[in-house]
Amino acid sequence: MSTPISHIRNFSIVAHIDHGKSTLADRLIQSTGGLELREMTEQVLDNMDIERERGITIKAQTVRLKYRANNGEDYTLNLIDTPGHVDFAYEVSRSLSACEGSLLVVDASQGVEAQTLANVYQAIDNNHEIVVVLNKIDLPAAEPERIREQVEEVIGIDASQAVLISAKSGIGIPDVLEAIVNQLPPPREGDATKPLKAMLVDSWYDTYLGVIVLVRVIDGVMKKGQTIRMMEANAKYLVERTGFFTPKMIQADEIGPGEFGFFTGSIKEVADTRVGDTITEDRRPTAHALPGFKPAQPVVFCGLFPVDAADFEDLRAAMGKLRLNDASFSFEMETSAALGFGFRCGFLGLLHLEIIQERLEREFNLDLIATAPSVVYRMAMTDGSVKELHNPADMPDLVKIAHIEEPWIRATILTPDDYLGGILKLCQDRRGIQADLSYVGKRAMLVYDLPLNEVVFDFYDRLKSISKGYASFDYHLTDYREGDLVKMSILVNDEAVDALSMLVHRTAAEKRGRTMCEKLKELIPQHMFKIPIQAAIGGRIVARETISALRKDVTAKCYGGDVTRKRKLLEKQKEGKKRMRQFGKVDIPQEAFIQALKMGDN
Amino acid sequence: MTLDLSPGFGVYVHWPFCAAKCPYCDFNSHVRHQPVDQERFAAAFATELATMRRRTGAHEVTSIFLGGGTPSLMRPETVGAVLDAIAQNWTIAADAEITLEANPTSVEAERFRGYRAAGVNRVSLGVQALNDKDLRFLGRMHSVSEALHAIGLAREIFPRLSFDLIYARPGQTPEAWTAELEQAIGYAVDHLSLYQLTIEEGTRFHALYHAGKFQIPDGDHAADLYAATQEITAARGLPAYEISNHARPGAESRHNLTYWRYGEYVGVGPGAHGRFLEDGTRIVTIAEKHPETWAGLVEAQGHGIVDGEVLSRSEEADEFLLMGLRLAEGIDLARYEMLSGKTLSGRYLSRLQQDGLVAPIGNSRLRATPQGMIVLDAVVADLAR
């Protein structure tokens, strides 16, 4: 039986990382009986180990909660858990567009952060009603009144009804449930008699069931046995199963208007489904398709290579498997003189990159070398054509390039006043253009336009280190702008290492080259000969360091009782060498390819 | 001259007790404030030797080495009992080298005649330095004059004598070291062991060094001291036949050559290691380190072996390489191929050869050059991959 629309509430939770979103979700599930206490693990919605360990949500999840309100009536509450990180802003936006309200969770001691802002504005853009939830009120540092004012002042929403809770201690959870029922609206439309109209919210691959599609039904009813049509993809499927999550997967005969649920059919790959697509009944289609979404575009690229060349095919298979579940991750084969066969991969951002790399290493037991992340440059050629450059090593002949354009972002940074100076300098050093600087109490809100290639590597690390972890940061891509960019090559022992080449702004090239050479000097171990390391732009050497030759490396005493220990040391050394790449006569440790790019404190 | 390059079959006996622990030493040594029950240990050595004999089968023992610890704290009767036990289990070659490590204190020197009578024909004296200040720094209990007396006595009593020096000491200049070395060569008979001071984990020096209490010569300085040592000893007729060992040709330590030539050896006593062929495969034995625990194990089960392994071909090949290349005579390439089942990696070999770090001897052997010796650990790591 479907719930009447007036008794459905669809909501998501928006919060800054660590402000308690997943804990609150756990409590809501627990207190409405979705899971027995013994079934609860922490962060039940974060299925992947990586999600739990990093305290982040990567894939959207929905949970149907049954709730009998204080007014004695039964409600169906659908919680749509969304990723909080900027890299997954796209998943956030589509999840938000599928519901009518949001809980805005703010840490009652830390207050509003940049990520909070970015997500709450998205919710507001989606016409959400917002319930403000101040969490962690039992901490000694909690200042709910101050934070309530801050929310009103900074975000400009009414926080007078804010619910005060401690998700960890279980304080105030019933108040949250009541606020969901009383402050959030039911679905705005929904007519069970109209032709089926449903939004494809997400899809993923399950080993047993194949592709599982998460939908939000707007009009009509989705049933087992129906033949549905995905309007944009223009594909027909027979619905084999329907149901919902509590978060356990429960089969149900139908999904009614206003509700969330899943269906399975004979869909082979996640890539066959398009998020935002309109699903309708093939026999009786709806006249009005939903506006849909633009697919997410990778903005950061890097090369991933197996440490052991023999793992290449395994890497290809593993990437294929990850792609089944993550259509925003792209890869194509690449050959590097330094690193052999590998893949050029596209990601939504740096966190996405790290997560994919970690999953490949952990779930598929692969050792990988990642090359410098690069953004997508646009090369305006002299013949009038425009080429996209994903890999600095593929840079066309300079004489054929009229100019190069690079992507820019608009970044919002919130920081305690004390660190403002350092952060302004960081943004300045990264070619930033200040767009706004305002104050929220004692905190500064900085808005900067920055070239993405200045941010893509270690901007976030640097920001965290300058602000001792207090500054928060969010960004979105704005446009492409022409830049005076040059290709810098790195030569190790007089040979160019393609995997270390990069595009840099001309004004920053020398400094960058110097830092790279200094870093590589630390990262490459001493060899039995001396190794020059040079940075070059065109034919011109802009920086140079030398790794001196190893003078002495021999065990003084080695007798019968020392052999085992010495052999084990040798085995460890051999193992270490396997994790290095040979370039000419030089062994370069795999981590050097990434570490060399970290600019450090200068 | 034809060289006898056969690795031989050695027996190592570990006496684990010392009068005091030296701050640089990470060997298995223990200080006891009560007298050690020497009969008990002699009996335990005999029991463990008999067990080993069952595992190794019959062999002709080409060398015996009594190491420690401080074997010169053993009574001559204890040494005699151990040598008898070895003779009961295997044949001891007529020309077998029987070495005892000794400290050059006057007390220990008094026992030299007894050791000679028991069958010891070579002593290795832990002289370590020829100036009193450095001897104190090294925690040694003898003076220079005691050391010189012990050397004199040993020269009279034993057919063969070696002594150890530790160099690259804190603040040691090349001039000071070369002078000391020249003096040492004057006292030497036919063998010297010259070790660079290294800071080993678990020693008192390790803690002091990492607390910044003293410094030792760094890579370049240490390399210069090493080079000077090679030059002087070669010029004085005691060339290096191994990284830290120097001898008149023919006077090399037979026992230690067995280790470096990757021969078979039995190890008995607390913490001793052995490597020998059992049913055609090379096995490693490692004994319990704590002396009384070891003795208890031997009494209960006939041996004190608590650890060991059966070596794979590639492990054998690695060990052969890392031991053999320490020798000036280098390694036999055919034996490497036999052990590992493959030839030495051509790519790295030719690169190391181009860089002058290794060189062939005739068609069948490979050695590290003097430039290669000083970075041997890195050379071996390249060759072994």
Automatic annotation (TrEMBL), chain A:
GO MF term list: GTP binding; GTPase activity; guanosine tetraphosphate binding; ribosome binding; translation elongation factor activity
Positions of GTP binding: 18-23, 135-138
Residue ranges annotated for the Tr-type G domain, each copy included: 6-188
Enzyme class: hydrolase
GO cellular component terms, A-Z: plasma membrane
Known EC number: 3.6.5.n1
Predominant cellular place of this UniProt entry's protein: membrane
Any single GO BP term: positive regulation of translation
Subcellular location: Cell membrane
Membrane topology: Peripheral membrane protein
Purpose of the protein: Required for accurate and efficient protein synthesis under certain stress conditions. May act as a fidelity factor of the translation reaction, by catalyzing a one-codon backward translocation of tRNAs on improperly translocated ribosomes. Back-translocation proceeds from a post-translocation (POST) complex to a pre-translocation (PRE) complex, thus giving elongation factor G a second chance to translocate the tRNAs correctly. Binds to ribosomes in a GTP-dependent manner.
Protein name as annotated: Elongation factor 4
Lineage per the UniProt record: Bacteria, Pseudomonadati, Pseudomonadota, Alphaproteobacteria, Hyphomicrobiales
TrEMBL record, chain B:
Organism annotation: Oryzicola mucosus
Localization terms from the record: Cytoplasm
The protein's role, per its UniProt record: Probably acts as a heme chaperone, transferring heme to an unknown acceptor. Binds one molecule of heme per monomer, possibly covalently. Binds 1 [4Fe-4S] cluster. The cluster is coordinated with 3 cysteines and an exchangeable S-adenosyl-L-methionine.
Main location: cytoplasm
Protein's UniProt name: Heme chaperone HemW
Gene Ontology biological-process annotations: porphyrin-containing compound biosynthetic process
Family recorded in the similarity comment: Belongs to the anaerobic coproporphyrinogen-III oxidase family. HemW subfamily.
Domain Radical SAM core: 3-236
Cofactor(s), by name: [4Fe-4S] cluster
Classification via PANTHER family: COPROPORPHYRINIGEN III OXIDASE, RADICAL S-ADENOSYL METHIONINE DOMAIN-CONTAINING PROTEIN 1, MITOCHONDRIAL
GO molecular function, one term: coproporphyrinogen oxidase activity
Pfam families for this protein: HemN_C, Radical_SAM
GO cellular component terms, A-Z: cytoplasm
Keywords assigned by UniProt, alphabetized: 4Fe-4S, Chaperone, Cytoplasm, Heme, Iron, Iron-sulfur, Metal-binding, S-adenosyl-L-methionine
Domain of life of the native organism: Bacteria
